[in-house]
Amino acid sequence: MKLFELIPQKLSDLLPPKLNQDIPPPIDQLAEQLIETGKIAGYAGVGLAIKTRDYAINTLNELIEIGEQALGEPSSQIASEEATETASETPTEPAQPSLEELFTKASEDIKTLNGRPDNSTLGELYALYKQATIGDVSGKRPGLTKVAERYKFDAWTKKQGMDRDIAKQAYIDKVESLLAS
Fold first, then answer.
1. Which end of the chain is less congested by CB atoms within 10 angstroms, N or C?
2. By the 8 A CB rule, do 157 and 88 touch?
3. Up-side HSE of residue 126: CA atoms within 13 Å toward CB?
4. Which pLDDT value is given to residue 115?
5. DSSP 171
6. For residue 160, what are the contacts with CB-CB under 8 A and spacing of at least 6?
7. By the 8 A CB rule, do 20 and 2 touch?
8. What is the pLDDT of residue 31?
9. The pTM is what?
10. In sequence order, which residues have a C-beta less than 8 Å from that of residue 72 and are 6 or more positions away?
């Protein structure tokens, strides 16, 4: 028996012809067994891949179902009707503006202020606004000749580490107090 008779045609085309020699009887049986084992292993690998794919698809479908339930999407018409009835019974309260909306409004309202606040109040407003919109101060402190920029930098530095949402709320409160007075 020749070697190329044992292996698939596609593989034998890749091998040099001088390898196509006679195989002695005990070795040819062993070669056939190895090739058969390789085929079985190949089939097993394909089967495992298919099984893994099926498992992954099933898991994905379960996750989608759990996600839909978590989002509160009604799974039937009855649940949908119950949700509608519950929603119509509960009086709706006007939505409270978000912190971001209040901050934007305050930054616009400050422009309508009658009169100019003192320098310390302006520095406080500047520092809170910068901390709320940008975060911690960065860069070098301006030189001695740049008095206004240096004052702003120092005021902003005092707010170092303050959370942006806290800075927004403090800015809103400061603007409201200025508008009230």
1. C
2. no
3. 19
4. 85
5. H
6. 136, 137
7. yes
8. 66
9. 0.49
10. none
Specify the amino acid at residue 84: T
Name beta bridge partners: 2. 22
DSSP codes of every residue in 16-77 = -GGG--B--HHHHHHHHHHHHHHHHHHHHHHHHHHHHHHHHHHHHHHHHHHHHHHTT--SSH
Tokens of 174: 């400061």
Non-local CB neighbours of 71 within 8 Å, separated by 6+ positions: none
Structure tokens at 10: 């596609």
**Quick one: which of 125, 112, 133 has its CA closest to 151?**
125
Q: 99-180: what fold?
A: Acyl-CoA Binding Protein (1.20.80)
CB–CB of 173/99 below 8 Å? no
Length of the chain: 181
- Domain boundaries, given as residue ranges, for the chain: 3-89, 99-180
Q: Which distant-in-sequence residues (6+ apart) come within 8 Å of 34 by Cβ?
A: none
Beta-carbon count within 10 A of 122 CB: 15
